[in-house]
Amino acid sequence: MNFQVKIFLTFAISVVLIFSVINFITINFFKEQQHKYEEEILSLYREILKQNKNYQLPYYIKAYENELFFEESYITDRFQRFSKTILIWEVLLILVLSYLFYKILNIISRKEQEEEEFLRFLFFVLSHKIGNFLSTLNTNIEILRLKPESRVLERMQTSCNIIGAELKKTMETIKKLPKTARSRQKINLTELIKNVNSKFASDKKIFFSKKEVNVYNNLEAMETIVFLLLDNAFRYAHSKIHIKIFRNAVAIRNDFTEIVKGSGLGLQIAEYLCRSNKLQLKYRAKGEHFIAVLIFN
């Protein structure tokens, strides 16, 4: 039994106990008032009969040897109607309260799960970016060991600048997360892809089929998704990368000479972000090409 179920059962039992106490007090109060009501009505009819002995009494009042009393079935029926009315309304009220509490508890529970999943996601993102940086750095260091070149040093400096900027951007995103996690804005895909693509220094040919398309979504999430897809393409491409914007999708295709199996973490992170922002990500390797398609409404 999980924590949420325990809370719900505790709430339901507490509500039932509270209403049981209220019922007990209400029924006792009703009985007292009923007794007073009976005495007052009987006293009134006694006075009437003193003035007029032929007065027709109501069906629920009987006379026996100059004594008046209520019909037992009438009192029982009146008490049962009162009890049923209270019971029906209380059951409805308990059901409504339980449903509302369940919905609130479910929302809170789902939000906690989303926050926990997002924390794991942030850890994966940072690990992925730092891993990419270290991999590039180690490659450049090996090249420098063989043949020192200023161009390699420039690439190392560029890589350091990129990882520094990415870490800074990630930290800024975390700081303003409560405000931007659900925020949506108009995003120009061409400008977004150009901006992300500029962060990659590569000698591979890039073919960019531009089309003016705007989407409404979370900017930080879209930037991260595009970055991860381009990072995957640049990492495994042999010589060419094709980027094409459609009316409702973005396709990124790269060639490769052989299938290189990586951790797949970048695509997993991208898939998580797509699910969180109501996007779809499809990818597959076909022939000598790998294609990833980001679909939006």
Please give a structural write-up.
The chain is rod-shaped and about 130 Å long. A hairpin with a 3-residue loop joins strand 6 (240-245) and strand 7. The protein is built from 7 helices and 9 strands, in the order αββαααβαββαββαββ. It has helices spanning 3-51, 72-146, 150-175, 177-180, 189-197, 219-236, 265-276; strands at 61-64, 67-70, 185-188, 205-209, 214-217, 240-245, 249-255, 280-286, 289-295. It has a 5-stranded mixed β-sheet with strand order 4-6-7-9-8. A two-stranded antiparallel ribbon has the order 1-2. The protein has 297 residues and is of the alpha+beta class. The chain starts with a helix and ends with a strand. Helices cover 65% and strands 16% of the residues.
How is the topology of this model organized?
Layout: H1 3-51, E1 61-64, E2 67-70, H2 72-146, H3 150-175, H4 177-180, E3 185-188, H5 189-197, E4 205-209, E5 214-217, H6 219-236, E6 240-245, E7 249-255, H7 265-276, E8 280-286, E9 289-295
Parallel strand pairs: 4-6
Antiparallel strand pairs: 1-2, 3-5, 6-7, 7-9, 8-9
Distinctive features:
single chain; 297 residues; alpha+beta; two-stranded antiparallel sheet; 7 helices
Please provide the count of β strands.
9
The separation of the N and C termini measures 39 Å
Helix content: 55-70%
Main sheet summary: 5 strands, mixed
**What structural class do helix, strand and pairing data support?**
alpha+beta
Task: Quickly count the helices.
Answer: 7
User: What amount of the residues lies in strands?
Assistant: 15-25%
| CA-based shape | rod-shaped
Output mean pLDDT.
80
What is the multimeric organization of the chains shown? single chain
Query: From N to C, what is the helix and strand string?
Result: HEEHHHEHEEHEEHEE
**Global Rg:** 38 Å
Low-confidence stretches: none
Widest sheet: strand order? 4-6-7-9-8
